[in-house]
Write a structure and sequence with these properties.
Keywords: Activator, Cytoplasm, DNA-binding, Phosphoprotein, Transcription, Transcription regulation, Two-component regulatory system. With about 230 residues, this protein is of the alpha/beta class. The protein is built from ten helices and seven strands. It is elongated and about 65 Å long. About 5% of the residues have low confidence.
Amino acid sequence: MQPIRVMIVEDDPMVMEINAEFVSKLPGFELAGKAYNGKEAMLLIKELHPDLVLLDYFLPDTNGLSLLQDIRTKNYPMDVILLTANRDPEHIQDIFRAGVVDYIVKPFRFDRFQTALEQYRHTFKKFNENRPLEQADLDAISGIQRHPSEALFEELLPKGLNDRTMQQILQFLEGQAVPLSSEEVAVGTGLARVTVRRYLEYLEKKGDIAIEVQYGSVGRPMNKYRF
């Protein structure tokens, strides 16, 4: 999957650089552009076509809600996350009604930022898989937590496999730049090698991951897996 292209709209140069650095730390994302006011933002959005806009509310020539509404009016196909100190409940409600995927209140820590973008990456992937979405997919996208007794999705898995472990392995592979062996995945996830091997074989058969056979100078070929 191509990196998700992110544009940041922020009038404070120091905050801009912090947010840009945060984006650079996350695999699967690339910084497409920076805008310091609303006018510049709309020009860059039209030119760069980012996938995701990280938007401040307080801007020198407009506010985040007006800019968001402008984006929606022009039907630009992109998602927006608000990064702002604005805590006004009326404004926040209007912002969610205008369509944002997340709302992060400043000041925030990197782990909250990381959670937001990783969740967005999983959602972005779901929408680009070109397959019908199941209820479990939609629940994950909307943040709905299933009741522990609801095992309908897991019943679709082979006996002995569970969705939580499968998602753990998928998320780990998604963040890797190079294919990994089952032993490397086991080390990276903290799971047993035998367990990891079963999940990798299942995921490869489903087509969720790809397998590459690598030949060394000696010894037998090694299977390596990539997202």
